[in-house]
Amino acid sequence: MKKITKNLFSVLLAAIIAVSAFVPSLAFSREAYWELKWEEEYDNGVILFPGSDNSEMNVSWYSATESEPKVIVDEGYAITDGAETFTGYCVKASDGDYSNKVTITGLEAGKVYSYQCISEGFESERYFFSTDKNENEFSAVYMTDIHISEDSADETLLKETSRKFNSVMDEVVLKHRPSILLSTGDQASEGLESEYKGLASCLALKNIPVATTIGNHDRKGIEYKTFTNMPNEDKNPMISSYIGGNYWFVKGDVLFLVMDTNNASGMDHRRFVKDAVESNPDVKWKVMMAHHDLYSGRIPHRESENQLLRLLWAPIADEFGIDLVLLGHSHYFTVSNVMYNNKAVADYAPVMTDPEGTIYMVSGSINRPRNDTEIGLNEDWIGASNTPDEQAIYNVLDFTEDSITVSSYYLGSDEAFNEYSIVKTSNEGGHPDKYIPFYNAIIRFIGTVYAVFNNIGVYQDLTDDGFSVDFFEVVFG
């Protein structure tokens, strides 16, 4: 009876989403369904993350006890006796729960898959995801600074920020049908297990994966590492953040490099990017995701920090021909001109063909938009921006074999307020093949030394906040 009930809930959810896509007045039904499922989805936190490539999908969820987790997968909308079972592993989470991690392999293009998560004492309802029919053409939604938040002084805050994010994803999925969410940091406000469970309560993230980035707020706690299940993580850095680090994945013809800008260890970052690029020599596009704003200049008091970050990160983007860098942190929307060697080498334009450098983009926050009339703007570097007006922003990236088109939307609007395309006529595009100054290696070394001392400060902050952490794990990763 329990299995039948779960399957009925699954069918009901699929029907609600399908029908309300054509009948917007039924949006309340989706909200009502989330309200009905909130406690169950919060407790278990089933969520999808990207696999190493199109043939894989990673799954994570919480359980009260330790066991060998399993995911049962079948093609189509039913789980039959011929379903395949994938096993994974289990790690201890910070609040006494266990985080279960499983990788699904052998996926084929243009298919719908059913899956069910099973661990000791837990059996999820049946969820669904689909794979892209044309693997080199897909849409991604990019947002930043989601800020699921728990506050002991406001018992409603966790549920309300979770509800808001679920509603945001409802709108985005129904309008644009993305096959992945790209989130550039600060998914949580304090890095707590409860906040990541709130993120995972989002119903859309049972159907599409989310690629998350470590933000400065994620680093305030210790749970990000156990919550996530990411492919191709950097397992042997000299110095890293204690909650995880860099990882990469390939989707279609795109290599996504997800970087931890909280960590100043430039030697680790360059080695990681070099290894990832050399492991994927035939991809056409290279997209980097990171948290910290580098070029906009919109928060003047952070410009000294941004200057140091640019010294570390811009040479890596230059050396390896990164096409697009997606960022967050400032909560203000900007798109740079074409940048190379910390200079604008070409102006931003609606269509940029074979640009001779990298475009850096910062999205406004989806959950904490700002409105500050005293902000600055680096007009020498920034080609597109908006007037801050406390409107939440998300972006849709449409990938084809020859282009990336980025359309930016205010939440609730059907018309993009900004749109541009990057076009490449070859895998190399217009990226210059120039000598990289030797002093960049010195900067990377200094950054690595600095990372050690910075992590000592982080260790002290964590212990002061009551977290039980190991000194060497925090300081050296």
Describe the structure concisely for a colleague.
The chain is 28% helix and 25% strand.
Account of the protein in words:
The chain has helices spanning 2-20, 27-44, 157-176, 193-200, 224-227, 266-279, 303-319, 439-464, 471-476; strands at 47-50, 57-63, 70-75, 84-87, 89-92, 98-104, 112-119, 122-123, 127-130, 138-143, 180-183, 210-212, 247-251, 254-258, 285-289, 324-327, 334-336, 338-340, 343-346, 351-353, 359-362, 382-385, 393-399, 403-410, 418-423. With 477 residues, it is α+β, with helices and mostly antiparallel strands. It folds into two domains: 2-130, Immunoglobulin-like, CATH 2.60.40; 138-423, Purple Acid Phosphatase, chain A, domain 2. The strands form five sheets. A seven-stranded mixed β-sheet has the order 12-11-10-23-24-25-20, with no helix packed on it. A seven-stranded mixed β-sheet has the order 13-14-15-16-21-17-22, covered by helices on one side. Strands 3, 4, 7, 8 and 9 form a five-stranded antiparallel β-sheet that branches. Helix 1 (2-20) crosses helix 2, helix 2 crosses helix 3 (157-176) and helix 2 (27-44) runs antiparallel to helix 4. Mean pLDDT is 89; it is low at 1-6 and 19-26.
